[in-house]
Amino acid sequence: MEPHFRNVVVGLDLSAAGSRAANEPLAPASRAALDVALRFARKGMKVHLLTAVEVDPLALAMLRRRRTRPGGAFARAHERLEALAAQVAATGCRVTTRAAPGRPADALLEDVRKNRRDLVVVGTRERGALARNLLGSTALTLLRRSPVAVFVARPSAWPAPPVVLAAIDLGDMAPRILSAAAKFSAAHGAELHVLHVVDFAAEDVLRTGAADAEFILEYRRQRRQNAETAVPALVAKALGKASAAKVHLVDGDVNAEIVAWAERVRADVVVTGSVVQSASGALFGLGRTAEAVLPALHTSLLVLKP
């Protein structure tokens, strides 16, 4: 993993009653998030385990006015987190825990900003068309709003060796995506694939204008030719000419091709980039891509931020 990932927060869902008991197994999504933390843990890293306890704001305010701490759920969640922290601490990490009031995404975003985290890890069970409508989910909210990298872990066992797919465009984030994917691959003996999709973004606009068929064909030819030159050069510069990464240059819809190639190469982790949501609520470029592909992927997703 990238060297600067040294201060990580892991979001765990302990909302199910059994999940707060020290001897009960975690829900699959939370188990996946904790497994990622254990997989990346190393001596000296800071790992913060956080769970959100959603309490009616009115009840919480009334308890605070009476200077009464909301016990029960918070106390059980704290005990469970301490038991889980012992597993992470055994790796040599510095581990802290907190059971915070509020929605999971809000609690994680507040923690990221307040404690200057550089990676947030969460699990998710969502995939398929239905999940596209679940825009309030923790993972999707983090992809939109987190100022730091987000790792969305799927509940699945990673084989040995795993397969990593780095999805890049030709923007400023591409070298960093390649570097992170290469470091991840090297650390875990993974097979690395690099995917660039030539999407012919302006074709629809050209077709509605004065451009004839010959002009559009020339536009497609030149855009493809540019990618055939730029992508290998970018990969060689970021990873070295002797890199064993397998490069795939395809035409089509970016979102659909990322999902299709993740299935085709049997990827265990997809690495891509995103941007922080703008003040107007808009996402641009790979920001839209990361959000769009998450529900359809059957794999874990690491999204880097500028």
Please describe what this structure looks like.
It is a single chain. The protein is an alpha/beta fold and 306 residues long. It folds into two domains: 1-155, HUPs (Rossmann fold); 162-268, HUPs (Rossmann fold), CATH 3.40.50. It is 41% helix and 20% strand. It is built from ten helices and ten strands. It has a ten-stranded mixed sheet with strand order 3-2-1-4-5-10-9-6-7-8, sandwiched between helices. The protein is globular and about 75 Å long.
Structural class: alpha/beta
> In which order are the strands of the major sheet placed?
3-2-1-4-5-10-9-6-7-8
Mean pLDDT: 83
CATH architecture classification of the largest domain? 3-Layer(aba) Sandwich
Q: Could you describe the largest sheet, including whether it forms a barrel?
A: 10 strands, mixed
CATH topology of the largest domain: Rossmann fold
What is the CATH class designation of the largest domain? Alpha Beta
First and last CA, distance:
16 Å
How much helix, percentage-wise, in residues? Answer: 40-55%
Radius of gyration: 21 Å
Which shape, going by the Cα principal axes? globular
Number of domains: 2
- Summed up, the helix count is 10
Q: What string gives the helices and strands in order?
A: EHEHHEHEHEEHEHHEHEHE
